[in-house]
Amino acid sequence: MGVMERMFREAMGLAAKEEAGAERLPLEALVPSPQPRKRFENLEALAESIREKGVLQPLLVRPLGDGRYAIVAGERRYRAARMAGLSEVPVRVVDLSEKEARLLALVENLQREDLNPYEETVGVLALLSEDLGRPVEEVVALLHRMRDEARGKVPHNVMGSPEARRVEEVFRALGRMTWESFVQNRLPLLNLPEDLRGALEEGAIPYTAALELKKVKDDPLRKALLEEVKAGLSLRELKARVRGHGRSPYLEALRRERAPKPWHREVGERLLRLDLEALPPERRARIEELVAELKELLG
Predict the structure, then answer these.
(1) How far apart are the first and last CA of the chain?
(2) Do 122 and 115 meet the contact criterion of CB atoms below 8 Å apart?
(3) Which of the following is catalytic: 10, 19, 23, 75?
(4) Angle at CA 155, nearest 5°, toward 150 and 160?
(5) Residue 239: which residues within 8 A CB-CB, separation 6 or more?
(6) Could you list the residue ranges forming a coiled coil in this record (predicted)?
(7) pTM of the model as a whole
(8) Under DSSP, is residue 156 helix (H, G, I), strand (E, B) or coil?
(9) What's the mean per-residue pLDDT of the chain?
(10) Domains (range + CATH), the chain
(11) Using one digit for the tens of pLDDT, what is the confidence trace for 23-82?
(12) In angstroms, rounded to a whole number, what is the distance separating the alpha carbons of residues 47 and 25?
């Protein structure tokens, strides 16, 4: 039993009772439940394995009371089994409330090895939200107040509250990072620009690079740096670029290209390109009048 499941069963005090052995249920009797997992990668490979060996790990389901069962954990196996053409799968039936089922689904989601940092951040917040019974926005605000109080900035008087203690218990059970590290290094990922979040979710860049790139407010420059990171630019080199040192020639050229030209140069260049003969008579006469006035003013 993993640390997350132990946390779920012991620290959260759930009373789920699993049957002694697995039973088999038809796929038509199983109902996928709304759950945090959005990506189901390599389903084809899993389906092929299931065709050869069957479903080795039973799905965890709870009865809905009408002959159907909601999937609590194992939706990826359920989808792959359908792809493999199976008609039934092994399951373990547990008696859980809807809240307990949501918590267990969150716990099972966080046990995945292919979670990227952004997904893990969202998953941890969802777990805290469900456990505390508060919206994610309030959980984020609570974490920020805890950090401020721990740093002595603001006397929020929340560190001794039951909610703060529960937050600490959850992070201890997770065993991945402290809540302080989560606030400092993971919460900023929620406000990433779309291009950075997409690259992070794809696994194209580490979250440390995403946080560094987030400091670049100029969109074209950030995108150019993002491509360099994807191509292998180290975090040390990236930080130097962001600080303004050691910029690549490409970025310097891009910066010069985007720099606004002085108005008189822009007007001069447009006059050089202007075809007076092609203009309507009234407009041509007006331009010649203004140019003559400008020449007089310039002496």
Answers:
(1) 89
(2) no
(3) 75
(4) 65
(5) 212
(6) none
(7) 0.63
(8) coil
(9) 81
(10) 3-96 (3.90.1530.30), 117-189 (no CATH), 192-258 (no CATH), 269-298 (no CATH)
(11) 899 989 998 876 555 556 667 888 888 888 888 889 889 898 888 998 888 888 888 998
(12) 18
Residue-wise pLDDT tens digits, 180-212:
999 999 999 998 999 999 888 888 899 899 999
100 catalytically annotated: no
Among the residues of 72-135, which ranges form H helices?
Answer: 75-84, 98-110, 117-132
Q: Decide if pLDDT at 157 tops 90.
A: no
C-beta atoms surrounding 207 within 10 Å? 19
CA 161 to chain centroid, in Å, comes to: 29
In this prediction, residue 20 carries a pLDDT of 44
Task: Give how far Cα 83 sits from Cα of 32, 73, 86, 219, Å.
Answer: 15, 18, 8, 42
Tell me the C-alpha distance between 120 and 132, whole Å.
18
Say how far apart CA 100 and CA 173 lie, in whole Å. Answer: 17
pLDDT above 60 for 17: no
